[in-house]
Every structure is written in C-alpha cells, then in structure tokens.
Amino acid sequence: MTQNLLRKILCSFFFVLGSILYAQTVTGTVSDAAGTLPGVNVIVKGTTNGAQTDLDGTYTLDNVASDAVLVFSYLGFKTQEIAVNGRSVIDVTLEEDVAQLEAVVVVGYGNQVRKEITTAVTSVSEEEFNKGVINNASQLLQGKVAGLSVYNKGGNPNDNGIIRLRGLSTVGGNTEPLVVIDGVLGQSLNNVDPSDIKNITVLKDGSAAAIYGSRASSGVILVTTKSGKSNQPFSVEYNGQYGVSDAINEVEIMDRGQFLATGGTDLGSDTDWVDEVTRSAFSQVHNIAMSGGAENTNYRVAVNYRDTEGILLNSGFEQLNVRGNFTGRLFNDKLRINFNSAFTQRDSDFGFNEALRYAIVYNPTAPVFGDDAPFAFNSDQFGGYFETLGLFDSFNPVSIAEQNRNAGATTTINYNADFRYSITDDLTATLNVGQQVSRTDNNQYYPTTAFFRGGAVSPFRKGRADFYSNEARTKTLELFGTYNKTFNDFFRMKLDGGYSFQENDFNENYLQVGDFPPGVDFDFSNAIEVSQDLNEAGRVIANSGRNDDDRIIAFFLRGNFTFDDAIYLTASLRREGSSRFGEDNQWGTFPSVAVGADLNNYLQLDNVSLLKARLGYGVTGAIPPGVGLSQTTFNVTNGAGGFGSSSTGIGTRLANPDLKWEEKRELNFGIEFAMDRLSATVDLYNRDIVDFITSVQIDAASNNGFTSQFQNSGELNTKGFELTVNYDIVRNDRVKYNMGLVASTYETVLEKNVGGDRTIANLGAPGQNDTEVILVREGDEIGQIWGPVFTGEVDANGTPILADINGDGNVVADQGSALAEDGDFKVLGQGFPDWEIGWTHQVQFGNWDVNAFFRGAFGHSMVNTFRVFYEPRIGSQSSYNYVNTDLARDDIRTAQFSSYYVEKADFLRLDNLTVGYNFDLNDDSFIKSARVSLTAQNLFTITDYTGADPEPAFQDLGAVDNGGNTGNPEVLAPGIDRRYNYFQNRTITLGLNVKF
Amino acid sequence: MKKMKKFLLLFLGVISMMFYTCTDLEEVLEDELSTEFSDDGVPDNSGETAGGVFPSGALAAAYGRLRNGSAGHGSYYSVQTVSSDEMAIGQKGGDWFDGGIWLDMHRHTVNSSNGPLNGTWVDAYGGIAETNLALESALSPGEAAQAKTIRAFFYWRLLDLYGRVKLITSSGSDAPQSERTAVFDFVEQELLDALGIPAVTASMDLSGSDLGTGSEPYIVNQFAALGVLAKLYLNAEVYTGTARWDEAMWAASYIIDNGPYQLCEDGCSVLNLAKRPNVASDPDQLSGYAAVFAPNNQFNPEMIWSIYYDESNAGGMNFSQMNLHYSSQQTFALDAQPWNGYQVLEEFYNSYDNGDLRKEANFLAGPQTDFDGADLLDYASDDPTIVVEYTPEISELEPNSVRQSGVRAKKFSFQLFGRPDMNNDYPIVRLGDVYLMRAEAMARNAGNWNMALPDVNTIRARAGLSPLASIDADGFFDERGKEMFQESSRRTDLIRFGKWGDSWWEKTNSDAFRTVMPIPQEQIEASGGTLTQNPGY
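Predict the joint structure of the above. Result:
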C-alpha cells in the first residue's frame, strides 16, 4: 500500500517535472505565398549548424556569426541564401520551384520531409477534401487514399460510417484506425468539425504505424487542425453550406394494383409508405473562424454550427462546435506552448430506421389511420393509426416515425497543452498533456398508444421510456525528446524517444420503465415516477457499468538516419502495456524498420523529379474490445424461489491470464515516381495478423460448464496492392485539368482459426432463423457468402429447386449440413470488394473550377435480405407487401435463402460534382476573397444491384425483428444488406466562402 | 556537448524511474462479478417462501440450472418434443423455416450441427458444473445428497439423449468420453449413494439416507431420487441391453406406498387465472389434472420434484410464446406477441377420447375468442369475418403450413396478462408418472400387459374415463402418451416401445442409429479430439 502510494506520488512528480524546463540567435518564420512552411532546412552556410522550421514555419539558429549566410532549402521550392548582417529576426518567403510536392508530413511524434519518408503514408490537405455537406471528418477522405475504405451505407447523417484501412486487420480488436488529433491519441473524429481540419495524414503500413504500438493495427489517422500564423493581421473567414437531400434508389416494391393482382389482402386504401416516412431534408452549415498573430503568439478560434436533417422523418442532428488554438513563444522562442481546446454539443434525433424497413414491408392497401380501415378498428388505442394486429413483425411505419421519440445529446470537452522546449540546437523536449470528458444521454419514449415497443395492445401495460447515459474520461500524458543532428553532408540523424500514458474511465447507466397511464397524451419520459412498473420491480430493466483504470502505458524510441541525402533509414521500437491483457501477458514490443532510397539521385533520369523506392517492416498490435475479457465472470443466482439466499453461478466466460495483444506484422514495398505532368505511387504489402482475439467455444464438459473463453485464436494473412496516379492533362495559363486515380485491392485469408470452421450471420425471423450465410473456414478467404444454389426451377409448391452441387444424387441443403461432406453448399459471392477506386477530375479555368469525383467498388456481392424475406409470393402471408425487383418471379412462393438472393454489387458512382466561382477582388478591399460553389453529392450510380445501396457492407449488426435492437458488429460477416439499412440520398449543396 | 550529455542522462533517468513508478496496469473489474460468493441470506417467511421450502446457499445455483431449457425454446424441451409425434414446428410460409432445423428435428434427419442439440448439451453441463462447485463447498450431508441427485439427473438426460458423454465429477477437470453403459452405472450408483442403499429392492430401508422425506417439491428428497432411478431402470434395456424391470417397479412402488403424495383429483383445485372477467363460460376454478399444471400449481400434492418458474425471478418457461398464434395475445391479454411455432399433430390430438378431461386441459382447439369473449379476428386477412381457429388438421409440415392450423398445447395453461416468462412449475417427477412407471414395469416383468390395468385405470379415472378391462402394449403406450403429453417424455417412450423408427405424418426416416442424438459438432471441435461422434452420424 505504502509502496503504491509512493509510486503514485513519484509518478505525479514526473508529470509535473516534464512541464518545468529551463531556457537559451537568429529566428524567423519561413513562408510561401500560401502561408508558413514547416520543415524547411535552414543551415549556416559552410557549417553543419542547421535547423528545420517547425509546424508554424518558425526556426531558431544559435551560434550564428553576424556575417554568416543562411541557406533556406525545401523540396519543391527554390533554395534561397540570405546574409544575416547582424539581424536577429529573418523572415523569408520561398518561391515554389517545380511541382507542388507536399514537403512536410506529420508522422506521429513529429514530422518528416516528404522525400525522406520510408513508409506508406498518404497526406491529404484541405484543397483535396471532398466537398458538399460533410457530416463527419471521415467523409472528407472517402475515396482519396488508396487502401482506405470509408462507407456510410445509405448515408444516415447520424451514422459515422465504417473506416477500414487495407481491409480487416483485426478480428477482436478495434477495426477502425487510431485517430490522433493534434498529437493526442485515441480521439474521435466526431469531436473535430470537418471545417477546422487543415490536413489529414494516414499512416498505412506497419512500419509507419508501429510507433503507436498496440492500437495501430488498423492504421493511424493523424489530424492537424488549422491554426493562426505569426505576424498575421486579424482576419475572419466565413464558410456556409446549404443543402437539400432526397431519398433515391429505394427498394422496389409493389403498389396497390400490383399487390392485389398478386393475391394481396385488400385493406381498402392506397398508401405509398416510403413516401410517407421520408422527406426532403434540409441542411445548413455555418463556420466562422477568426485568426491572427503577433510576433510571439498566434491564435485561431472557430465556431461551427450544423443543422442536418435526415431523409427519414424526425431524424437528423444539430451540432455546435467551438475550437480554439493558441500558440505562444517564450525565452527567445526556446519554449513554445501550444494550447488546443474544443467543445462539441450535439443533439441528435436518431429516428427509427425501422420505419424504413416496415415501409417496404407494409401492406400498400393499408390505411395510415385506423378510421380508414375497412372494418371497425379501435383507432384510439393506437393513437389514431392503423395497425395489422394478427401479423408477426408488422408495424405501421408512420406510427413508428411520428409517435415515438429516439433522441440523444452528447457533450464533449477536450483540451491539450503541448510544451516544447529547445534545450540545445539539436535537442528538444516535448510534454503533451490532454484530457477529454464526454457525456452522452440518449432516451427513447414510446407512448401508450405506440404498437411498436409501446405495448399499445397490452391491456394494462402501455408505454415505455428508455434512458441511457454514459460518461467517458480520457487522460493523456506524453513526454518525449527529439535529437536532431546533421553531422556532415553525408549523414544526418534524428532520434525521438519518450513515454506515453493514457487512462480511460467509463461509466454507463441504463433504465427502462413502462406502464404509463393510458388515454393521456403526455410524454411520460419526464415523469417516470408514474410508471406502474415501479410497483413491481421485476418489470423495471436497469443496467449499469463502469470501466475504470483502463490504461495504456508505453515507452518508445525512433531513429531517422539519412545518408548522402538519398538513402533513408528509419527504425522504431515501442514497448507497451495495456490493462486489458491477461495478467501474465501485459506487455508487448512493437518494432519496425524501414529503408528508402532516392534512386534518381544516382540515376539522374531526364525529366524525372522523383524516383524513390522504399521497403518497410513493422509490428503493430490491437487490444481487446473491452476491459476484463481475460478475467472470468460469474452470475448471481438466487434461490430456486428467487428469494432468501444467493450464490455465484457459472458465468459466461472462462479466465485467460495469457490473453495478449493481437499482433500484425506487415511488410510494405513502395515506389514513388514523379516527372513533368505525371506522378504515381505504388504500394505492395503482405500482412500477417497473428493471435487475433475471439471468443472461442470451449468444451463445456471439461471447463466447468463455461462455454466460451477469449483466446488468441487465429491468424489472417492479407496481400494487397495500391496505386495512386496523378496526371496534368492540360496545364497552361488559362486552363488546368488534373486527373487523379487511386485504386486498391487486397485479399484476406483465414490461415488459422481455433474456433473451428463454421457459418455465421443468421438471416433471422420470420422463417430464416438458423440460416447462416457467411463462411468462416480455415484456409479460405474471409467474407465469403455461403449457401445452396438455385437451379432456376421451381416445384409445384412454389419452392425453389436447389442444385445437387456435389452430384451425389441427393440435394442436402438444410442449414445443419452447411459444412457437411454431403451438403450441397458453395461460395455464392464475396462480401469484400476486389477493387475499390476513387477517380478525381479537377478543372480550373479563369475564376471557375470544376471538381468531379467518381467512386467505385467492384467484385463484391451482397445478400439482398429484403428479397429473401419478401420477394417470394407467399400466399399465406399476403398481408406483407412484396419486394418487386427485376429479379422477382411470380412462381417462387417459398422464402428460402439461396444463390438467387446473392447479387453482384459492382458500382461506379458520381459521388461528388462541384462547380465553384472565385470572385476577383482587390487586395485592399474589405472582403479579401469570396467563392461560391454548387455541389451535388451522389448524382448517379451505375450498378446492377437491385437493393437500396450497392456499397459494400463491411460488417454485420445481426438479425433484427419484431422491434428488437441491433447487436454488436461481426467483422467476419461482410456482404449482408440488412433490412434496417438507411436509404440512399442525393444532396445538392450551395457553398459560400468569404474572407475578411 | 557536455550539457547535452547531462541532459540525456537526466532524461534517461526520468524514463527509467517511470518504468518503476508509472507502469501500473492492474485492472479491477468494477461492473462484473469476478470472485465467487455464497450467502444463505435471511429466510423470507412471507407468503409462499416459508423458511426451508426453497433451496438455499451453494445449492441454489445448482437448482436454478434446472430451469435452463426445460420449458423453453431451443434446448432440451424442444429436442424431446419436436422429435416426437406430439408436436412439430411447421414452416408457415415465410415464417419458421429457420434453415430447416426444426423440419430435420421432426423428420429425424438431424445432424451434429443442429443448434438446439448444442444448447441442450451446454445446459446439461452447466448444471453439472454448478453441482460440482456446490459439492466442493461446505455442504451438509443432506445437501450433498441433493447435489448428487441433481447431477445424476443431468447425466440421465445426457445418457438418454447422447449416450456417450464425459463424466465430470469435479471442477475444472476433464475425463474421457464414457460408453453409455458406464454412464448408466454412474447415474445408478450416484442415486443409490444419495439414498444410502446398495441396491433398490422390494424391502429396502432408506433410514440411512441423507435425503429427507419432506413434501417440498423444490428440494430433492428420497422420493425424488427414487423417481429418477425409476426412469433410469425403466429404460435400462435401451441404455445397456439389460432390462431392470424389478428395480423400476420397486422404486415406483416405494414412492406410492411411502410418499406423502396423492393424485390431484376432484377436490384438488386452484383459481383459474385465465378466467376472463366478461366471459361467463371460463371456469372460475381449475381442478384435477388441469390444476397440476396451472400457473398457480405451486405445492400441488402430486408434485414430487418440480422446477420452480416464475415470471420475474425465475424465468425460462415460455410456452405461451412458443405455441400460440399472434392473435391469441388478445385472448389472454398477454404482455408480448406470441411466435406461432409449435403445433400439435392431428393424430396425437385425436387419440384422446372426447370425454377425456385431459383433452380440454391439454389443448387449445377450435375458434378463438378475445379478451371480452367476442370472436378473435384475424386482422391480417381482408375478410373481417375470419375468426382465428386452431384446426386439428395441419395442412402440411412445409412450406406452407397454414398459420392457424394445428391445435396448440396449453397443458401448462396460460394466465391473463401473462408475461413471456410463465409462472407454472414444471414436474421432473410427479405421482401420475410414477403410477404409470410402476404399471409398465410390472406388466413387462410379468410379460402380461393386463398387470398394468389397476394403475392405468387409476389414472383414467382421474381423467374422467371408464376403466379398461384389458390392455396391450400399444394401448398402454397410448395411455401413457395422453397422460404425459408436454412433459418431455415422449421421445424416450417412443424409443422404449420400439416406435421411434415408425413412420407418422410427414416423418418417415427409420435409421436405427438415431435412438441417440449426435454429439454436437461444436463440442467435438472444442474438445480437441477427446469427444468422438456417435456411430451413424
């Protein structure tokens, strides 16, 4: 205990120590026409005394003779020599040299000159971001980075979308990249407004990401927010967007006439349910940023407001985000303090995706309101709405959308302070401390008249209110030093090393009560004390959770060595521990080494400005998805009567003290090439993911009745290829036309799986329970859709005749035989795409610019679940509407999963088309610049897929029916187009940008 | 340079101190229970929970495990029932196909990947592990004998269903897969130990048993252990090839002669909790056979060992959900919409005589009415005159089994405003069963089925039927089936009477190896080769 206390005190002491560092002369800022330039080499001519400009473009050089000459050099810019002449401040503006090669790239714990980078890193800056109504920072990158997949199926504004880098890199861990915002690890892209982002860098391969250790397997996204500049007058910039969205490409269903002709039940009305629950959705975004700077300080404050409606009735969100950034320099610029802080308040109406689902399924002859029913109907009981009572899984979609409420609010506050002190010219120390607190409150209310979850049909238990809240706190402390030394023309080196500490605390509470007084039109979610459930505790559902002391602690070291200004070597090592691992296996080591060579330095090819080859190897990790998975848990069992006594019962999982991180070992080979109008990057990689974490079924008999345990249970291998090409098709004074293409492909094979071969991803009720459509088999690619094959013939019952695939004379297609030797099952498709591309066209002529961006994915298939369930013309279920795609057949009258419902979903989409105009304004006018633009998102899609959206489904949230909720994502089950997906929408946006 | 070295030293020093001080990764789970505990608690003397009636302490969890799968969907009950000629789950158009697993179960074409077979296995071993844990804690001799009986009962289920299983008798240990005869011997010996006797005989003396003789149906007593032994001996020929009719007969007789139990007949009645206030024809009381299984059947005099279920604290009985049509929610004003799954086979329903009180008690048939007694309309249909009617005839097993076809099991009857979890207790051993076990054992022992007549007629009398003058094997099988409907007994009975391979309705398969179920594939894979599949699968 005493020792623990001592450790705590000492630990705090070092945290404080890091921030108190001592002080020590030519300084200045290097900029170009657009602003300050980080990473510029400044050398005292004829010596080895040199420095690089920092992120703000400032540099400091000691021991400079008053008659010395400074040499400013920077890739892509003309080198300048300037005599000091006794001055102590020298600001320089560099002129662009050849092409616009981004010179400095943030690489984690510092930055690096682009040409010296030895790893697969892609940097996307503001100008290249996607335009239009962007709700989440990840959308800025959609299709821009080869190998980075960003999908928000349907485009629900309340969904964050799914981000995957180079496919699936972990099974049990976090499949989304680690997000680092302004140097603070483990952030969420939700907490940075897209308008405030200056640059996003994606660390793609293992050797780049290894410095981030056990959270980096899924890649790392480094976000740099905008900041003010030194010596810059106060300026204000306004950005505004006004958009309107409409639902497109809905699931094709029958109208009243078609439905009746197919034998549907006539309930007397003619209702377009999809139209009833969707709308034209308006969005607006306003962003005001103020920035400025004096000699030793600069700042930027931005206020962002967005109000986005969803196309689904009563869905959308409103968000206010304020971000402030302050930088100051002290002690002759030896100490730089950077302070970042953001506040985000988001109020969401999640609405009910179920309304979209039931809009597809609901009888098109049914009336919206009960008074229009063809028979006596007790409308009052259902809030005036009609309901079909005798059917399973059937709810009036308009009633769902209009009567119930599903809303939430999240408030996030974060800050980080970064102290950097230059101890000598070569050595700096940086302390970064940060904290984030976020609180979420979600609640749902189903009035006493709601049939969907509200119990309207229950005689005495009506109405339901759900409350969920959580609070998450993250503390970060990092202390690291950088040693930068140029020994001579032939050899330079840079060393970084440090310590990293992060702790997460998480609390959550859930409460569900029901049974409110019927016949009263009042939202009882603010008066839950009247819930009659409280009289009988068994009906109240309450849940709480707390994860404390969830820590990650690391030590790291990295060296960059440059030889002959053309051969680059990088090596790093991170030793990291996480409290989530088993007690016998808490610490892991993550090394990397990478080498790059500027071949053109030796080959001197004509017209070629860059020819670099690089090879890197790195080890990264992934931590388990939750705390305590290595520990066992028990249930509490009350006496058989439920009273009087209690004891532990066998829980669900067995302890595993050996549980360790998932490990990814990745080898990456890349070539970067640039000449005249053409530039290209090619990457090839091979990654082995070993010891992935899953819950494995264990022999219940010999494990004390426990049925599962979290184990390091398998291995994946991914091989992939990525290509980025840019070409200036036209480049003259009047017109510039650049075309860019990014393309990627990969294949992931399950090399080992302790959990055993199986099928997963149940289609669900009605009637398709225990119908698992995704294959998980050792030695096979992951994500394969598995099932019986439809012959095209139908028997007298209307049952599809399935193929005798193995030719043994028997058709064995029951799900229990899915993997049996005599089973007639085969691979019906692949849920992951073979190729994903992004294809950009940028045209500039005069004051006009046009940007067209196409995005596509090819080779993937999807299980169209709407068709499986509702396309067969099942006579006995004639009160559901029928899905009626081009593939519909009137002779199929039995719903049974087969190859017929697995469709190729190749697509090419005009994702974004923007036309902009920049006004000519005088430099001394009140308005410095102004631009208007018109953006169309999702203008058209070329595809044969008959469902709502051909975008790949990267993971599966499980079957949902009869008012149930979605489950945890299953990452091994891509390719299922579930019935709760949002509809696609098309958005037209007017944008306005003014600088004062 | 010197200054720099000093700084580097300091920096390294700081880092190495941090190794010592700032590397604490101990994680304490604050929202889950990660250590064991047991608390006898304060006996609750209110209401039905009079002190000592319910199991307590370390045994509570073991008893609680009996609920899992015994009266719900997807485990033991479903396997025992759907594989028999009592019930089937027809594919109702788009509903209930479920990958064909229930069609396979009914048609005897299951294979080892069938999910409910794994559920059954896991539930049994969960119970066994819980009793092992209990046996390793400080138990009184009486409690230890109860625990052994519970464990033997779980092993009996495994013996009956799978035959060859692992006999695990201590926490965390493994054991090789035993042959069926060895499992039989183990179950027999454990029960004899609990009863404190070397063998079941006509004149056995149970005074040395650690088990009690109290009448609480939730705590295993001598009669409960004997009842399980009777089931074991009655099926011994199936399990081992050697018949043990004598012991089955003696065990059953001992219960009847010495136990405090009596058949629930005319005077034995409970309030009818399904009585709708506005429906005069609903009886106020349930009596006799119907009372044995009613929602308020706690402490019924016929119950020797039963599983306690209740809607809030002891869930797991879901018959109203599993059996009823969606619209029947309106009849009983149920909390949740039913699933419209299990349908009673027409031939089985028709085997009951019309005067048989059990026919009314066991089935919901014919046109249905709503809470107020008015016709229950099928709102899914466009004809407002269509009334939901459970027809004895089931149109077909698949693919378009009409939604309302097949009468519905309601032996464990429903109550108004019922929740998805029901309140009825479920018998493991009850006196009616014991009478029939004695009758069958006597008859088979004597080679004369008429020897069964006295006990059979006792049971028939309670059902309001006249006595039979003679009976044969088929007749007895028929009588037993009508009495034991919905009590998870039919599969075992079909096998013992050699009828398991017969054809009925849409079931034709007669593979001889199917008298045991396949060992679940998931368990075989997880066992690393220590479990092997049963022959034939």
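The two ends of chain A are 61 Å apart (CA to CA).
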